Amino acid sequence: MNQSPRNERVDVAVARSIAEIMEAFAIRTLVYMGEQNCPYDEEYDGNDFAAATHLIARVGREPVGVMRLRWFADFCKVERVAVRREHRGGEVAQAMIEAACEIAGRKGYRTILGHIQSHLLPFWRRYGGVSVRSGRPRFFFSDHEYVEVVRTLAPHANALTLDTPAMVLLRPEGAWDEPGVLDRSNERLAPALL
Ligand SMILES: CC(C)(COP(=O)(O)OP(=O)(O)OC[C@H]1O[C@@H](n2cnc3c(N)ncnc32)[C@H](O)[C@@H]1OP(=O)(O)O)[C@@H](O)C(=O)NCCC(=O)NCCS
């Protein structure tokens, strides 16, 4: 939990339903298509449902920020970070960065990769704790210049592994510490089996 520029509580959650995906897409449409004139099919690039996790930052019920995480074998890639203009000032973005690091670390990842717009490097250094990958060229797409940055995570004390209890691995992404719907399904079992 963080405080927004207007001193409001910011909560970050994983999108788990079509309705929540729509919240994420609404923000991306406002920010990337609306502010940055990104063409529709470049913003919605075919990777939204390919091993992707969408984080939504909310103030109350209102979605104010979004971030997409894509999972590769050895690293997590942070993408499509956007905060609605009226909620900018650092706290929303920072809350999403912290949530992304927590989820990636919990999943056992140690490396986060970002392709960031070059002019935002000071922002990413300050709020994202990233460093530029040496020996990697800058590159261009969708009218912007990009640079590769990485953040190395310390090993998570409670990282999920093959030996994590089955019922924990079955819980919804990012909510591994609370009983989930499948835990509750066991209430249907005969008491003798529990
Ligand atoms: C990038 C973004 C998520 C940062 O969220 P935020 O921290 O709440 O937003 P802010 O506007 O307060 O920006 C934070 C810092 O980045 C800088 N910044 C933001 N946009 C910038 C731009 N286009 N060019 C240069 N600097 C920029 C701000 O000046 C600010 O620096 P400061 O702390 O020294 O004042 C938000 O500005 C955004 O949604 N931008 C549009 C989408 C985008 O470009 N995403 C990043 C793709 S790599």
Summarize this, please?
The protein has 194 residues and is of the alpha+beta class. It has helices spanning 18-35, 40-43, 91-106, 121-128, 166-169, 181-185, and strands spanning 2-3, 9-14, 52-59, 62-71, 76-83, 111-117, 131-132, 139-141, 144-152.
Descriptive account of the structure:
With 194 residues, the chain is of the alpha+beta class. The chain has two domains: 155 residues, Aminopeptidase (3-Layer(aba) Sandwich); 35 residues, no CATH class. Helix content is 28%, strand content 28%. The protein is built from six helices and nine strands; from the N terminus they run ββααβββαβαβββαα. The longest helix is centred in the first third of the chain and has 18 residues. The two termini are 35 Å apart. The model has no long low-confidence stretch (mean pLDDT 95). The structure holds coenzyme A. The site of coenzyme A has 14 residues, from strand 5, helix 3 and strand 6.
